[in-house]
């Protein structure tokens, strides 16, 4: 039997699911726990706004430049269709690209129970739950809004971590949902690929049209400007991606009250990466910006180009939070 949409989840739930949520809420209150008072991370929000503003400025200038070589209406239509499709189907595209499959409560009861309980504490709608069948121990969140979110974990992660560590990782991913940074990163990442496609378009089809499109000089200028735009976008997105990981780590500590569990999980995941087959790492490397720890194939990456802050900095920040909790 299915009821109307639940205020808490925003989704249609069975009576059994609603009962479980009420039970979790009762147990939390009985044990003296409270829903966390989520404080906005002004640093993260400021960086998200700045990133989107700078990207918008760069792309407006880029489109204005391209309009000299192509129909402005064509370019706007291209961008609108591309952006709309990527935004509304981002969760499905990410699930498809990673090989993740949605799992029911019957298939993964413990995972669903854990996520439901953490959502009650965080005051979040319960996301769609998915699993990726890979030895790479990792997790990610995606989706355009909290009500359209997906949280996925790999089988490697579930086998490697104990319950407390798994809860800390899931709380980290739910913090991305709460902060809405996953949606901003998704939009920003997809915007940056427009320049790449324009470069390919100009190379394969020889330009955009008009008298100047047949000019090799004009084509080279378009190609160079497109590369510059892509590089600027790349650096802006990487900077945002690194900061949002710090924010999600703090969110995990706030939700669970156990930053030490996340420290332990990060160390385990990082240590296990070295033993994962290179082929498995390459299959998911394109999703590094969304993972809790990047699935790097090679050695250290320049900090300016990394999707994540260094492990040392993350652990130091979490240890500081742990000391604040203890004292």
UniProtKB/TrEMBL annotation:
Keywords for this protein: Cell membrane, Hydrolase, Membrane, Metal-binding, Metalloprotease, Protease, Stress response, Transmembrane, Transmembrane helix, Zinc
GO biological process, one term: proteolysis
Requisite cofactors: Zn(2+)
InterPro entries registered for this protein in UniProt: HtpX_protease (IPR050083), Pept_M48_protease_HtpX (IPR022919), Peptidase_M48 (IPR001915)
PANTHER family linked: PROTEASE HTPX, PROTEASE HTPX HOMOLOG
Enzyme Commission (EC) number: 3.4.24.-
Domain Peptidase M48: 106-321
Active site: 173
HAMAP family the record matches: Pept_M48_protease_HtpX
Location of the protein in the cell: Cell membrane
GO molecular function: metalloendopeptidase activity; zinc ion binding
Membrane topology recorded in Swiss-Prot or TrEMBL: Multi-pass membrane protein
Family recorded in the similarity comment: Belongs to the peptidase M48B family.
Record-given protein name: Protease HtpX homolog
Cofactor note: Binds 1 zinc ion per subunit.
């Amino acid at each position: 039997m299915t009821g109307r949409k639940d205020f808490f989840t925003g989704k249609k739930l069975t009576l059994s699911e609603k009962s479980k949520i009420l039970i979790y809420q009762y147990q939390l209150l009985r044990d003296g726990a409270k829903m966390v008072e989520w404080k906005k991370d002004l640093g993260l929000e400021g960086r998200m706004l700045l990133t989107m503003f700078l990207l918008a400025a760069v792309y407006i200038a880029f489109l204005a430049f391209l309009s000299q070589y192509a129909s402005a209406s064509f370019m706007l239509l291209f961008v609108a269709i591309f952006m709309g499709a990527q935004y509304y189907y981002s969760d499905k595209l990410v699930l498809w690209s990673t090989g993740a499959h949605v799992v029911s409560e019957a298939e993964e009861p413990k995972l669903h129970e854990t996520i439901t309980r953490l959502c009650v504490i965080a005051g979040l709608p319960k996301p769609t739950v998915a699993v990726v069948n890979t030895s790479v121990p990792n997790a990610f969140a995606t989706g355009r809004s909290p009500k359209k979110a997906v949280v996925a974990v790999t089988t490697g992660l579930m086998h490697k971590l104990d319950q407390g560590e798994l809860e800390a990782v899931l709380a980290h991913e739910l913090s991305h949902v709460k902060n809405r940074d996953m949606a901003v990163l998704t939009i920003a990442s997809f915007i940056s690929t427009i320049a790449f496609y324009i470069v390919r378009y100009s190379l394969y089809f020889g330009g955009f049209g008009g008298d100047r499109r047949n000019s090799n000089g004009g084509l080279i200028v378009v190609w160079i400007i497109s590369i510059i735009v892509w590089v600027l976008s790349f650096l802006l997105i990487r900077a945002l991606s690194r900061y949002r990981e710090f924010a999600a780590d703090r969110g995990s500590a706030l939700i669970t009250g156990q930053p030490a569990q996340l420290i332990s999980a990060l160390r385990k995941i990082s240590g296990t990466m070295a033993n994962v087959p290179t082929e498995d790492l390459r299959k998911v490397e394109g999703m590094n910006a969304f993972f809790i720890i990047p699935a790097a194939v090679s050695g250290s990456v320049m900090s300016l180009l990394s999707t994540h802050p260094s492990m040392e900095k993350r652990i130091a920040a979490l240890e500081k939070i742990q000391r604040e909790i203890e004292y």
